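User: I'm curious whether this sequence folds into something compact or stays loose and floppy. Could you predict its structure so I can see for myself?
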Amino acid sequence: MEILFWGTRGSLPCAVTSEMIRKKIKSALAIALEKKLSAFDDLDRFVETQLPFSVSSGYGCNTPCVEIIGGSESVICDAGSGLRDYGNWVMKNPGEKAKQSGQVFNIFMSHLHWDHIHGFPFFTPAYIPGNTINIFGFHENLEEAFKRQQAEPSFPVPLEVLSATINFTTLELEKEHSIAGFKIFGIEQNHPGKSYGYSFEKNNRKIIYSTDSEHKLDKKKPDEFIRFCKDADILINDAQYYLFDALETKENWGHSSNIVVTELAVRSNVKHLCMFHHEHTSDDTVLDKFLKETKRYLKLYDKSSSLIIDMAYDGMRITLEEEIPCEEPEKHVKQGLDTFIEEKDDLVIFNLAGRMDAVTCTDLEKNFLKQLDSGKKGFILNMKSLDYISSAGLRSVLLCKKQAAQANRQFLICELKGMVLNVFKIAGFSSFMDLDFSLQESINKITTP
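Assistant: Here's the prediction. I'll summarize afterward.
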């Protein structure tokens, strides 16, 4: 089985500008001068081994379209602008797919937002007599959405006049479906208008396609998703935002953060995570940094994890090789959170020690709410003895800050170090919170008129 990515961007296609190309050329020349490159024979090796991915290549421009290879017929996830490139390849590729009629294409829709269907009017095999295109999804208005985007005045060619046979099938969510040699299951996801994730299973291999899903940090939904993804070989997952953006400025926009998705992949015992549906405003350099920071967070979250993390890109191909049994890595023993509450002058100090995760952070939230009624002027979270924090812990910090603001109280965090400081930075919290305060500086800031 193989996975081939034809489109990996989210929301809308991302054009490559002349400025971007010039930037890549200048970066490549600068590195070549630094390496004293002199022979043309070395060019291929230089490009492959010496240039960062953001310079030698790029993450692509197309919106979601992913091909799963290995079934009895073509299997495609979503019909974003990448579907156009896939269709062009089908028409030009030598071999069995070169025949221009009689082919069957199975397209599985996550949802019906524009960026996931706007490639279909430009899918050349849909114009070829004798081809069959089966469009599957869990939304009841599948056909209506495809017809509407090709109706006047939006498009000159109505869906009804396309020469291929086009079938629309609404799938049942609680049922196993056998299509093109795969066992297929679905899961409802949190997204405006609802989206759905898919599990494709064949020959003891499991591929999860889960895009446009906003994972909230409550208990029920993550547990359901973890069961759905359990032991998957590949998890293709929406990871469009930094955690702070997902929790604050873009909450309820329907997309997830790299940190939450990494935690869910580890908890699901997924072997390979492919981050997907990339932010269309992020250039290749930004996405390179995003990937590096995500891998860094994985080691902070669970240094024993063997999870592979990649950033999907247009043209990326993943082959599922024969599985080699290996010993299960030893998991960390989970520890609790100790909270020592200290009242000093006109403020309350929460001295935190241990681990702040999905289980333990609720204790802080409860204690903080009780202390808000004390009438104190300000509140400080002292993290000097805190060894570990997860996305759930970060969410609790943000919740405490919001509650303090609503009560017209001052709120500061201080004494961050090691893993905790790194996670705050990776999650984007340094953009709105000062992470450098000492305890005494925090006390002075609140108590000094």
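Summary: The chain has three domains: 2-11+60-319, 18-56, 337-447. The longest helix spans residues 18-35.
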